[in-house]
Design goal:
This protein is of the alpha/beta class and 233 residues long. It is built from 9 helices and 9 strands.
Length: 233
């Protein structure tokens, strides 16, 4: 089908699309994330227990962004957004800035962003591309109260009202590079299906929610996605 068939498209991207740029996926086969237990670096309890470890972990992730570039899948999505004349929303579970650097604009980071920090006292979110340490003061309170602007396990993902409202109105839903294990993102396909949308999974291998999708395309997103989107146009 061509894009003219669709009027409202929602795209969800996960770790798989960034992995093709060299960013390691969220969880390795041994259950570790960059050699750390998730419980030690990705929960509010971990930050309360050892804030220096958690800050150091995300400082390292933030520095890694300078070593990677958007891949053809990122660029294909940005190009499609510019050429599509209907409503378009790109929702990503990724905290990197590769979609922005590729040119995407109608974009929501549901799990936060590495290049932003949040004040623990006021909740204010600021752009912040450097390290966060005890010596870095929050601009709103002049105290060392900054934390990574990352949604940790046990915290509510961002923009959920807008995402769900858009899914309820979409007629095409694409899920790219996601495992289907992490909720609420894994349930987006069900919301789209209930809205009557056509649902497509683009992944290296079948996800945990493969049965919920009407169409499946397996292979690297950088190879599969540009061709798929070009066919729509």
């Amino acid at each position: 089908m061509k894009a003219s068939t669709y009027k409202r498209i929602v795209v969800l991207t996960g770790a798989g699309i960034s992995a093709e740029s060299g960013i390691r996926t969220f969880r390795d086969a041994d259950g570790l994330w960059e050699n750390h237990r998730l419980e030690d670096v990705a929960t509010p309890e971990a930050f309360a227990r050892d804030p220096q470890l958690v800050q150091r972990f995300y400082n390292d992730r933030r520095r890694q962004l300078s070593e990677v570039e958007p891949n053809p899948a990122h660029r294909a999505l940005a190009d499609f957004e510019q050429r599509f004349h209907g409503e378009f929303l790109l929702v990503t579970q990724n905290v990197d800035d590769l979609h922005e650097r590729a040119g995407s604009q109608k974009l929501l980071h549901m799990h936060g962003e590495l290049n932003k920090a949040r004040c623990l006292l006021s909740g204010r979110v600021i752009e912040h591309k450097g390290d966060i340490s005890a010596d870095v003061l929050c601009p709103c309170c002049q105290r060392p109260t900054l934390r990574p602007h990352i949604v940790w396990f046990g915290e509510m993902p961002l923009y959920m009202d807008k995402i769900c409202a858009t899914l309820e109105q979409c007629d095409l839903f694409l899920s790219i590079g996601t495992s289907g294990h992490v909720y609420p993102a894994a349930g987006f396909v069900d919301i789209a299906r209930q809205a009557g949308a056509h649902t497509v999974e683009i992944n290296l291998e079948p996800s945990n929610t493969e049965d919920a999708f009407a169409e499946h395309l397996y292979g690297q997103a950088g190879l599969t996605l540009p061709h798929f989107l070009q066919q729509l146009l």
